[in-house]
Amino acid sequence: MLLATGILRFGLDLPEKNVRALLAQGWGIPLSLSDVSRLSTEFLVRWRMFCEEALPTHASEMGPLVVQIDGTVVENGPVTCRFRHALTGVTLWAEQIEAESAPEIARALRTFQARYGVPLHLLRDGSPAFRKAMEEVFPGVSQGEDHWHFLDDLGPVVLPDYPALRDTLVKDHGLSRLAERSRTLPTKGKTIEEVERVWMRAVLEWVEAARDHTGGFPFRLAYLEVACRLEAVRRWAGQMVQGNGRRGILLPDMVELKLQVIRLLEREGVSWHRVRTGAEAGLLTELRRAMRVERERRSRPELAPLTREDVAQTRREIDLALTRFAAEGEWAQAIVATVVKRFEAHGPYLWAEVPGQSVVIRSTVPLEQDHGADRRGVRHRTGREETGQEMGRLGSLLAFWSNMRCEWFRDQVLPGVNLWEEFARRDPEEVRRRVCALPREGRRPRVVLPRGEKARACLESLVKLVAGEEPLEPHLSKWMESVSPPPGEVTGIA
Q1: d(CA 40, CA 3)
Q2: 256-307 pLDDT per residue, tens
Q3: Which pLDDT value is given to residue 443?
Q4: Helix (H, G, I), strand (E, B) or coil at 86
Q5: Which strand ranges, in their side-by-side order, compose the sheet holding 121-124?
Q6: Is 133 helix (H, G, I), strand (E, B) or coil?
Q7: How far apart are CA 295 and CA 297, in angstroms?
Q8: pLDDT for 128-167, tens place per residue?
Q9: Per-domain residue ranges of the chain
Q10: Cβ atoms within 10 Å of 184's Cβ, excluding its own
Q11: CATH 3.30.420.10: does it fit domain 57-146+364-439?
Q12: By CB neighbour count within 10 A (0-12 exposed, 13-18 middle, 19+ buried), where does 109 fall?
């Protein structure tokens, strides 16, 4: 029953009520929702215990210990710190930590070290906390930095004019008024005047569509596209007005559209910021092309490793792109100076080779994709509003379950394994301990206070004891006992 419930719940991502209905109608086994929840959680705990035991025994078969590490944050939940073997894709370790801070990350790194030893090479994003913790726990171990994250962080440096362009366009509801105007225009027409009004609606909706998805900065610049489309509308509307004049057609709406767009584009700074942002976007595109990071961030693919020759060519192309951009003027030279400093600071990590392999592995994308798949599974099973709560409770367990999506794990670890026997031989007391600890995994121990108004009374009672004249004992010991966690309670995985 444990295996059936777990596989239905996490293998097929079925909600608890569907699992209960399937077991009741298909197999004649009535279970309450609380039973389904309890069995599902216990399944993940026993699976994790199996992985913890099996994976270190297969470590020698994985090849060099090149490890991708990331802290995957979900709103309203603790951070899941994951360790993924970069060459095989196996999740080696995961645990909840209280925050993505250097001390918490260092604690997780030491736990990993106790199980797998010292890695050959580490991969991370641009987080200073991860860099500091890695240097503390694994001094001398080479670190690589994810190129996607580096370019993401470089965006505000390369594109300083984009925020000003965006703010100027939306100021005083400039774009909103165009959108409101489009809704007053028809969608059908027969005469030339009616058809031109339909065209006006279509062209304004086309402009508005450019900011349907305003995220994705710096890889997608929605408001630069808006400005470019407005320039096209200004040109087209002028041509339409001239054409109407030659045909003897008077269409005030078209004239007003032209004037409204001109007023928006001639706002102070729009033209200036648009030209500069276009040049800055061109520089970022060249840097992405040089670093072989050209696809849209929304569908970030795994980045191919770079050989030593690739790195040399990439760095030459970066230098050429910066030199060309600096020729734009002093404003461009200031940007180039900042970009150069950023490359100098991050260069030792961006171009760090895996020792003994003369190759740069430069992406943590697969690890993030694993976490994204876990999140989607939670949403499918529980609903989007519960994602943070569920990931906070089960994030590290789901990270180990993600090994079922790993081909190497299925081919090298699972063959010959009787999962029922593996689950059955787990110490039931240890299983119970871990299940009880789940709500607190990744959180610091806290004083246990009563709920509601009783908390105030509890706190005030010690104040009265200390401020009064009665002997402290035995009241002091009783108060301490009342706020202490139950014996044997833990806040994480030992």
Answers
A1: 9
A2: 999 999 999 998 888 889 999 999 999 999 999 999 987 654 556 678 899 9
A3: 57
A4: coil
A5: 91-97, 79-85, 66-72, 121-124, 142-145
A6: helix
A7: 6
A8: 999 999 999 999 999 999 999 999 999 999 999 999 999 9
A9: 57-146+364-439, 446-494
A10: 10
A11: yes
A12: buried
